[in-house]
C-alpha cells in the first residue's frame, strides 16, 4: 500500500504512519521528546533538526566509548569496505584476528563466536548451557537485563508490587518458559545458596550483569560473585557473565578481570566496536565446541551477518585504540570528577541524593541512605525528580536519557569543560525540577516490566 505524504508533514508524523510508534526500538520514543529528530553526531555531541547541539551522556546506551564517529574507526570501516563485503561463506582474516584478540584480552575466553547483537549472544549462551547440561532452569537477578528473548525477558525495572514474582517485560511469552527462569535478588549470597540447595540438579546456567547497569549502577559484593562461582562449580551449572555493557568500557579484560572471577561463558557488545552492530560470545573451549559451527555439534548457531567485515574492522580498530591510547585513564578520571562534583553539589543544595557509578558510568538516585546494593533499594528513588531534571537539562544543551534509573556515560571525546558544564547545568535543572514538582507522567516511561495480557486495543 502506498503512503501519501504532504510536503508540510513532519518527520515524526511520517514515521508514525509507517513505523509502529515511529521508532525502531522500544525505548526510543520518549515522553516529552516525541518530536526529537537527530540529524548528526560528532565526538561527545549530537545535533537535532533545529540545529541545537547537545552534549550526549546517554551515548546510545553506552557503545561509543571513543565518542561518536571516531575518525580512526570510521577510516578502518571505510578501508574494509573497499575490499570486502558479505559473502556468507568461509572466514575472513579480520574475524580470526578479532577472535585472537578477544582470547588474548579476556580471562574467560578460550574460543569465541561473533553475533550481530548482545541479545543473540546471551540467547546462544543459555541455549548451549541447556544443551550441555541437559537441564531446564535458568537463574537471573532482579534488575538485570539480558536482551529480548523469552527466557530472560522478565524482572528488570519492576514496580514494587511486582518484585518477588515473575514480571515479564512482554506479552506473548509462554508461561512454561517464564516458569523455567528463577529470579533472585542481586547481591544476596544466601538466596543463591538456597536456590542451588533446592534446584541445583536442574539449574543449567546462572546469568548476570556483573554490574547491573540497566538500573543505573549496583556494584557487586565480592562474596556474592564468589558464591556464584562456587555454587555453579559445585553443581555443574554454567556461569554466564553478561558483559555487553561492562566489557571493554570498564576494562579490556571485562569486569571479570577487575573482580577476579572467571565465568564459564561471557557475552559482549556495545563498546566492543564503538557502536557498530556486533556482539560476541566466548568462553571455555569445551562449551564453545558444542556449537554447530563445528560439524556435528548439537547446539545450532548461525547468523547471516555474523562477522561482517565492516563491523569486524570497527571492533579491531576500537580495541587497538583501547590498548594503545589512555582511553580508560581519561574516562575514569572524568567519571570520578562527575561523581564527586555532583555529590558535593547535592550536599550543598540539601537534596537527598546518592551519586554512584563505576569508571565512566554515573547516575544519581534521588533518595536518602547509602549506596544501593540491590534493586529493592532503588524503589526509594524519586522517579519524578529523576526524569524531571533530565527534561530540564535539555534547556542547557545537555542530554541524559529521561527514563527512570537509566545510567549516563563518559566517552573519550568528553572534556573537563564538558564536565564543568554538566555539573553547573545539573544544579540549575534540579532546582527547576524541584520548583516544578518533578514530572508526573511516569505511565509509559519504561517498557522494562509490568507487561500483562489483554493490552491490545
From TrEMBL:
One MF annotation (Gene Ontology) recorded for this entry: glutamate-1-semialdehyde 2,1-aminomutase activity
Cofactor(s) in the UniProt record: pyridoxal 5'-phosphate
Gene Ontology terms describing biological process: porphyrin-containing compound biosynthetic process
This protein's record includes keyword Transport: no
Keywords, in A-Z order: Isomerase, Porphyrin biosynthesis, Pyridoxal phosphate
Catalytic activity field: (S)-4-amino-5-oxopentanoate = 5-aminolevulinate
Top enzyme class: isomerase
Pathway: Porphyrin-containing compound metabolism; protoporphyrin-IX biosynthesis; 5-aminolevulinate from L-glutamyl-tRNA(Glu): step 2/2
Protein family (similarity comment): Belongs to the class-III pyridoxal-phosphate-dependent aminotransferase family. HemL subfamily.
Name by which UniProt lists this protein: glutamate-1-semialdehyde 2,1-aminomutase
Amino acid at each position: 500500500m502506498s503512503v501519501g505524504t504532504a510536503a508540510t508533514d513532519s518527520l515524526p508524523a511520517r514515521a508514525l504512519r509507517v513505523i509502529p510508534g515511529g521508532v525502531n526500538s522500544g525505548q526510543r520514543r520518549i515522553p516529552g521528546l516525541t518530536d526529537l529528530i537527530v540529524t548528526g553526531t560528532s565526538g561527545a555531541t549530537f545535533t537535532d533538526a533545529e540545529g541545537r547541539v547537545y552534549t550526549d551522556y546517554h551515548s546510545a546506551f553506552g557503545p561509543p566509548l571513543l565518542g561518536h564517529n571516531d575518525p580512526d574507526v570510521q577510516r578502518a570501516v571505510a578501508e574494509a569496505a573497499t575490499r570486502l563485503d558479505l559473502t556468507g561463506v568461509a572466514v575472513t582474516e579480520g574475524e580470526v584476528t578479532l577472535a585472537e584478540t578477544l582470547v588474548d584480552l579476556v580471562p574467560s575466553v578460550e574460543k569465541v563466536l561473533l553475533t550481530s547483537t548482545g541479545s543473540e549472544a546471551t540467547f546462544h549462551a543459555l541455549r548451549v548451557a541447556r544443551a550441555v547440561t541437559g537441564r531446564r532452569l535458568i537463574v537471573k537477578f532482579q534488575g538485570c537485563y539480558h536482551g529480548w528473548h523469552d527466557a530472560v525477558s522478565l524482572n528488570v525495572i519492576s514496580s514494587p508490587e511486582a518484585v518477588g514474582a515473575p514480571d515479564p517485560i512482554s506479552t506473548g511469552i509462554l508461561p512454561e518458559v517464564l516458569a523455567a527462569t528463577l529470579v533472585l535478588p542481586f547481591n544476596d549470597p544466601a538466596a543463591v545458596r538456597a536456590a542451588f540447595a533446592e534446584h541445583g540438579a536442574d539449574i543449567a546456567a546462572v546469568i548476570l550483569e556483573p554490574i547491573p547497569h540497566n538500573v543505573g549502577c549496583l556494584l557487586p559484593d565480592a562474596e556474592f560473585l564468589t558464591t556464584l562461582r562456587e555454587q555453579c562449580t559445585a553443581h555443574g551449572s554454567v556461569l554466564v557473565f553478561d558483559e555487553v555493557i561492562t566489557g571493554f568500557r570498564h576494562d579490556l579484560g571485562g569486569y571479570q578481570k577487575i573482580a577476579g572471577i572467571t565465568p564459564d561463558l561471557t557475552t559482549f557488545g556495545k563498546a566492543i566496536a564503538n557502536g557498530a552492530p556486533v556482539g560476541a560470545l566466548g568462553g571455555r573451549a569445551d562449551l564453545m565446541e558444542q556449537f554447530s559451527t563445528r560439524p556435528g555439534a548439537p547446539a545450532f548457531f548461525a547468523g547471516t551477518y555474523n562477522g561482517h567485515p565492516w563491523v569486524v574492522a570497527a571492533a579491531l580498530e576500537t580495541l587497538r585504540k583501547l590498548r594503545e591510547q589512555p582511553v580508560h585513564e581519561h574516562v575514569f578520571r572524568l567519571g570520578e570528577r562527575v561523581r564527586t562534583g555532583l555529590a558535593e553539589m547535592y550536599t550543598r543544595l540539601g537534596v537527598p541524593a546518592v551519586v554512584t557509578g563505576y569508571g565512566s558510568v554515573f547516575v544519581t538516585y534521588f533518595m536518602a541512605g547509602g549506596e544501593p546494593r540491590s534493586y529493592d533499594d532503588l524503589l526509594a528513588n524519586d522517579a519524578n525528580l529523576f526524569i524531571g531534571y533530565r527534561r530540564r537539562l535539555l534547556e542547557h544543551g545537555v542530554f541524559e536519557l529521561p527514563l527512570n534509573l537509566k545510567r549516563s556515560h563518559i566517552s573519550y571525546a568528553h572534556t573537563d569543560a564538558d564536565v564543568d558544564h554538566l555539573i553547573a547545568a545539573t544544579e540549575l535543572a534540579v532546582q527547576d525540577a524541584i520548583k516544578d514538582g518533578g514530572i508526573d507522567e511516569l505511565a509509559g516511561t519504561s517498557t522494562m516490566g509490568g507487561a500483562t495480557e489483554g493490552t491490545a486495543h
